[in-house]
Amino acid sequence: MKKICVYCGSSPGRRPEYLAATQALADELVSRNIGLVYGGAGIGIMGAMADAMVARGGHVTGIIPHVLANREVVHSGLSELRMVDSMHERKALMEDISDGFIALPGGLGTLEELFEILTWSQLGFHRKPCGVLNVAGYYDRLIEFLDHTVAEALVAPQYRQMLLQAEEPAQLLGLMESYQAPAKDHRIAKSAR
Ligand code: AMP
């Protein structure tokens, strides 16, 4: 993996652990020579993640739509900032240039991004690993709910298993490195998206 996309909150959240997790994740990414791809903002957990990478000399690509550039306060110290025309273009470019995806704690935008990348994997648009870094138990209930979706026969077990989870960055990256995407006959070519 050369680049990992991190989805995370544009707010800091109420626990210091959420911001602190960006330091531990940046340590691990930089030590493995993995660059960060993220939404380009300088605020909240997003800003902390970029700051932590920059402070360690890591490579950071920010991708932000023009329409959000003011609202989200673009980070000024990134290795590379790519301005795009829409949210859809942002998410497509994030997927295209990244080798895997991690969600840190975040709000609706983070959840939407995580579930979109999972559904793209379910459809076979990509075969890249997706994981949540479950900081301070933030994602406990989401994980519980996903198990419920399987119990209720609305999500197939092999698709539930696409979402990796760990409490520590090293453990999560280890799971991502050995990830095998589910085999599926009816997968649709990326060009059909
Ligand atoms: P949040 O987790 O809501 O703080 O948002 C984190 C990131 O997700 C920010 O970069 C937002 O621009 C982005 N975002 C917010 N809403 C959406 C949405 N509806 N679709 C995709 N991304 C979003």
Could you explain how this protein is built, in words?
With 193 residues, the protein is an alpha/beta fold. It has one domain: 3-Layer(aba) Sandwich (Rossmann fold), CATH 3.40.50.450. 41% of the residues lie in helices and 17% in strands. The protein has 7 helices and 7 strands. The chain has helices at 16-31, 44-55, 87-97, 108-122, 140-151, 157-160, 169-177, and strands at residues 3-7, 35-38, 60-65, 80-84, 100-103, 130-133, 163-166. It has a 7-stranded parallel sheet with strand order 4-3-2-1-5-6-7, with helices on both faces. α1 packs parallel to α2 (44-55). It is globular and about 45 Å long. The mean pLDDT is 95. The site of adenosine monophosphate (AMP) has 15 residues, from α4. Adenosine monophosphate (AMP) binds next to α4.
Widest sheet, order of strands: 4-3-2-1-5-6-7
Bound molecules: adenosine monophosphate
Question: What count of helical segments does DSSP give?
Answer: 7
CATH architecture verdict:
3-Layer(aba) Sandwich
Q: Which band does the percent of strand residues land in?
A: 15-25%
Q: Major beta sheet, specifics? A: 7 strands, parallel
Helix fraction bin: 40-55%
Query: What is the CATH T-level topology?
Result: Rossmann fold
What general outline do the C-alpha atoms trace?
A: globular
SSE pattern, N- to C-terminal:
EHEHEEHEHEHHEH
Name the CATH class: Alpha Beta
Radius of gyration: 16 Å
How many domains would you count in the coordinates? 1
Low-pLDDT runs of 5+ residues are none
- Overall structural class, as computed from helix and strand content, comes to alpha/beta
Average pLDDT number: 95
- How many E-type strands? 7
